[in-house]
Design brief:
This protein is α/β, with parallel strands linked by helices and about 230 residues long. It has two domains: about 120 residues, Rossmann fold; about 100 residues, Arc Repressor Mutant, subunit A (Orthogonal Bundle), CATH 1.10.10. Helix content is about 40%, strand content about 20%. It is built from eight helices and twelve strands. About 35% of the residues are buried.
């Protein structure tokens, strides 16, 4: 992972300085943006390997930047914030953030999370030649092009939404519990919040179900987990 570029979007100079120092010691290249507009200006010209981003920012907050990014890129994002409310964590995950760190935090722990997210991103990029397309009831999933269509219309999914959907849909009627999904899609990491699966399932239902509140494809097996019904 040496030489990977990390963009830090943080308006508190002392925090940005400490995070930059620890990341540089870990052999990462670091660029810093002090507010949302500066981050956008950088991202319009450069896509780093990972972004560490505060939510509360001047000019444009981290949610807005994440929303804009996910329409253009699947660059890994770790959200960094002093907020402790669950709704903020869920909002970040729904928008496509890969991880969430609450201030105050250990800089060394943040470096470990950066490495873990980068490892998962690298594994995602490895193509599986044996992977086969899945087609069911107007829903088509192509693992090679990483594209999903529903009744001929292209769907926009985040990287983790795609991996979760393909995993479950390629094993029709097989029930996966939350720990299995966390392990298979996010990899073994003590940092991943278990609610991540619930959030991503809800987001997928909003995209592939006619009525997300009464799903017919991505089904909850109460007390066990989830399964795909073809």
């Amino acid at each position: 992972m040496k030489g990977k570029t990390i963009l830090i979007v943080e308006d508190e100079p002392s925090i940005a300085e400490v995070v930059s120092l620890y990341l540089k010691r870990a052999d990462f290249k670091v660029h810093h943006a002090g507010d949302g507009l500066a981050a956008m200006a950088y991202l319009e010209k450069h896509i780093p390997d990972l972004i560490v981003m505060d939510i509360m920012l001047p000019e444009l907050d981290g949610f807005g930047i994440t929303r804009w990014l996910r329409e253009r890129s699947q660059v890994p994002i770790i959200m960094l914030t002093s907020r402790r409310d669950e709704i903020d964590r869920i909002t970040g995950l729904e928008l496509g953030a890969d991880d969430y760190v609450v201030k105050p935090f250990s800089p060394q722990e943040l470096v470990s999370r950066v490495r873990a997210v980068l490892r998962r991103a690298a594994q995602t990029e490895i193509e599986t030649p044996a992977a086969q397309p899945v087609s069911s009831g107007g829903l088509s999933i192509d693992p090679l092009s990483r594209s999903v269509t529903l009744d001929g219309e292209d769907l926009t999914l985040t990287a983790k939404e795609f991996e979760l959907l393909y995993l479950i849909a390629s094993h029709p009627n097989q029930v996966f519990n939350r720990n299995q999904l966390l392990d298979r899609v996010w990899g073994e990491s003590e940092y991943i919040d278990p609610s991540t699966v619930t959030v991503h399932v809800r987001r997928l239902r909003e995209k592939i179900e006619d009525d997300p509140s009464s799903p017919t494809r991505l089904i909850t097996v109460w007390g066990v987990g989830y399964k795909f019904v073809p």
